[in-house]
Amino acid sequence: MSLTVLRTSPTAGTSAWYLQLVDGAAARIETAAETTRELLADRSAVEAARSSTDTVPVESLNLVSPVTRPCRVVAQMANYVSHAKDAGLDPSTLPLAFFRKSSGSISGPFDDVVRPAHVTLLDYEVEIGLVIGRELPVGTTVTAADLRGLVAGLVITNDVSARDLQLPKTQFYEAKSYPTFTPVGPALVLLEDDELDRLGELVLRLWVNGEVRQDTAATDMIYKPLEALQTLSGFQHLDVGDLVLTGTPVGTALSAPPKPIEIIGHLLPPALKWKAFFKGQAKNPRYLQDGDLMELEIATPDRSLDLGTQRTTVRWTR
User: What is the mean predicted confidence (pLDDT) over 302-308?
Assistant: First the structure.
């Protein structure tokens, strides 16, 4: 059975870790761990908290990201069939591709998402995050049997994106790396036995101001964690506590233009093409506005595997 780990805001420079129990209670994990990496190395302390009777209500805790900084944040591109089709791409021909985000973009599950003043098209992407549980040096052979050790747990992530920077610059790092652009948590769900085999049962949902924007099961994923880690092991060293984002389903604010408009756009000089594109996107009400509330949830239908609920509010820098 999975273990649901929570992390609270540091007091006097020291983080506290809790294990979520039944009935909304949480027991403190007696550990000296300051980082996610150190906590994963102290699994016995996490297990011991299961039998603790000294508990507090989860709602009394000031929760922060259970993935600590610094760490590597690696993300998969266009990894859901529905999202690829919505972007005008053919899922059957999509390569397995990645990009990096700054770990400085990681924020808590209830922190504000702050839009910089120069950004106009702010978008959301609910994603399953894999937390790495074992060092993965470049050149390592990864088999299905290795996955249980390589993936220690799962978290909810929101890959917040400044589309007006991402698209014309044809790069992702800047557009996705501003502070608060990767809310994580609330829970780090440590997997046991063969629970990773249930990944496809997880349903990813995102609401904006109560309106469902994304609602798709992970069976829609094109490249599963095994394929992703096999490819990453060829060029990207990963350490314990690193974070791998696995892509988002259909429902983001950004969507491919109709084919006739896309064809015309290819005929225009780049400056005119992007001017026309952003003029149209400015009329799209699905981009995030000041004060918007995002709610994210990832769980199996029976909730036996539940990554919790993330709630963040968008704030615009003036």
Answer: 96
Q: Domain range holding 18?
A: 3-64
Distances (CA, A) of 127 to 29, 77, 219, 287: 27, 11, 13, 18
Dihedral angle sign, alpha carbons of residues 173, 281, 292, 120? positive
- CA separation (Å) from 41 to 59, 99, 136, 165, 184? 27, 28, 15, 39, 21
Reading the block at residue 71, the tokens are 């760490």
The mean per-residue pLDDT over the stretch 208-213 comes to 98
Query: For 74-90, how does the pLDDT look when each residue is reduced to its tens digit (9 = 90+)?
Result: 999 999 999 999 888 89
Q: Which of 36, 64, 92 is the last residue before a domain boundary? A: 64
pLDDT tens per residue, range 22-45: 889 999 999 999 999 999 999 999
Per-residue pLDDT of 54-69, as tens digits, reads: 899 999 999 999 999 9
Q: What is the CATH number of the domain that holds 154?
A: 3.90.850.10
148/242 same-domain check:
yes
Residues 169 and 214 in one domain: yes
Buried residues in 295-309 as b, exposed as e (16+ CB within 10 A)? bbbbbbeeeebbbbb
- Count of domains observed in the chain: 2
Both 214 and 90 in one domain: the answer is: yes
Q: Tokens at residue 202, please?
A: 């997880």
